[in-house]
Amino acid sequence: MPAKTLLEKAKNEVSEGIELQQQGNLETAILRYRRALMLKPNYFQALQKLASIHSSQQNWAETIQCYQRIVDFKPQLPTPYLKLAQAAQELNQIDRAISAYQKALELKSDWPAVVYKEAGDCLALRETSIADAIAAYQKAAELKTDWSAGFYTKLGDVLQKHQQWDAAIAAYQQAIELKPNSALLYLLQGAAYFKKRLV
Length: 199
Fold this sequence. Notes:
Elements: H1 3-22, H2 26-39, H3 44-56, H4 60-73, H5 78-90, H6 94-107, H7 113-123, H8 130-143, H9 149-161, H10 165-178, H11 183-198
Helix pairs in contact: 1-2, 1-3, 2-3, 3-4, 4-5, 5-6, 6-7, 7-8, 8-9, 9-10, 9-11, 10-11
């Protein structure tokens, strides 16, 4: 059977899948996208649509599988790496999530601030990625200045882990300004001052 015929059949399956998805018939749409992939295993649109449905259903294992296939044959696209990272983080596959976030940030440098914050949250979970977490949080802070006290607290925490005392103290101060009645924030800032004096 000629490849063009297979592609046309795959396109038809995807078109039908899109219609079914718009009608809310997700299970049948999934079957259509899978049929398209049986015809053309790396058919981008079918994988993307399938991943979208699995993500909306919080079926993270299937979501990961779809985005992994996409990045395997289209490694130059940053968004599938981001989606892969987010899904992997949902399943606590931290190393996979970190790797995917790093690749997404490497391929594209103009993500919205929230992406850098999410990447920072994930990167901060591994001691070996603290420097990258700091960079991600700092980029998020550059892009958006109205973060919550929680954001600045996390930034202060990772800065402390990296022994950047002055920057940690400043981050805690920003958190304190947003949440002045939090005794914990004063305690964290005081601990940073104390540790700074010890070194």
